[in-house]
Amino acid sequence: MKPLEILSVAWEGLLTNKLRTLLTMLGVIIGVGAVIMMLAVSAGAQAIVADQIKGLGTNLIFVTPNFTRGGPGGGGSNTFLTMDDVSAIEAQVPGVTGVSTERDASETVRAGSVNLSGVSIVGTTADYPTVRSVGIASGRFFTAQEVTRGTKVAVLGPSLAESLFGSSNPIGQMVLVGNAQLTVIGVTASKGTVGNVDYDSQLYTSLTVVNQRFLPSRLSRIFGSRVSTIFIKVADGTSMDQTIFQTQVLLAKAHNVSLTELPFNVQTQQDVIQTQTATTAAFRALLAWVAAVSLLVGGIGIMNIMLVSVTERTREIGIRQAIGATPTDVRLQFLTEALLLSLVGGALGALGGVGGAWALGRFGSFQTVIVPWSILLAFVSAAAVGIVFGYFPANSAAKLDPIQALRYE
């Protein structure tokens, strides 16, 4: 038989029972759609992490405690990063254009009759705009002297400034943050939302003010000088590896440990992104395997229905063999039917998966990124399912004895 004739006969065979055909394809549709949607969710999660890290700034080095080497809670004071480390790195490591750290809080902010709850407060240092690539639209950022003295000043994100003061100039105005009254000295340039952080709606003040005013007194005494992460801005053209090594040497000397015992991680942005990518890749593989189970179930459904179809059409097979159809023709006919079931189901599943991923990203709480190769992977997997699970029924049909098939009632 010619290929087009085999395809036509197979398609007619499927259309003889439309409902059963649709229900059989449903397993493949769900499986393919699940693969595409799950990979889109995991890719979206990876994109969020990458955006958040890149949004911190450029040419950055991160210094964080190493929890596997007796970090916080597992050793003495030399296992904690402190403000002294921030100052030492800024003063002694060549090629560094800025060093910053921060501590976050959430407070109610009032200005006149406007009252905003749950505003993100960022306590940081004077180098924050340089390190985090945040511009100043009007006014200025606070100075290192103001950080040391704990001067009660604030810099507003543009969205927050508009919410509090409308079209009025906020510079020189007073805002009540919790129970602390701060003077607005600047407004940042718009940076927008990076990852899930809205930089334009934050209030920036000195780390000293946050420690003194927005931490419980006991915590302030214990953690006031400690920092969780140090951000180091490296000048363009400066060797990142050399800067990392010099930072490690300085920290080892300051904390009286050897380089091999250094209880801190010193990493670049790319290192952090690669680590997060590896974690996300493992998560993505797990999701893909979970989704593949749906495809497997769909394949078993195809094999089951095709075996039923062979039994129901035994006499038809005998007639076709009697008028000249070879075992190969019969095998190809039923294999083509199984392949059509999986391919049509795969196409519908791909449409459903892309649509579902878009809907999740548009209306849900997930960020999704549709991965083009996942569509091809799901479609090829569907075809493979049709061939693998359709071969046994097709081969059973091809092996039927024509005489016995014609006698079958």
How does this structure look, described?
The protein is of the alpha+beta class and 409 residues long. Among the domains are: 3-51 and 275-407, no CATH class; 105-121 and 132-211, no CATH class. It is built from 14 helices and 15 strands. It has helices at 3-15, 18-55, 83-92, 128-131, 144-149, 158-165, 207-213, 217-223, 240-254, 269-312, 314-322, 327-363, 372-398, 402-407; strands spanning 60-65, 81-82, 96-100, 102-111, 114-124, 136-139, 153-156, 174-177, 180-188, 193-194, 197-198, 203-206, 226-227, 230-234, 264-268. It has a six-stranded mixed β-barrel. Strands 3-14-1-15 form a four-stranded antiparallel sheet. A two-stranded antiparallel ribbon has the order 2-13. β10 and β11 (197-198) form a beta hairpin. The longest helix has 44 residues, at 269-312. It is elongated, with a radius of gyration of 33 Å. Residues 69-75 have low confidence and may be disordered.
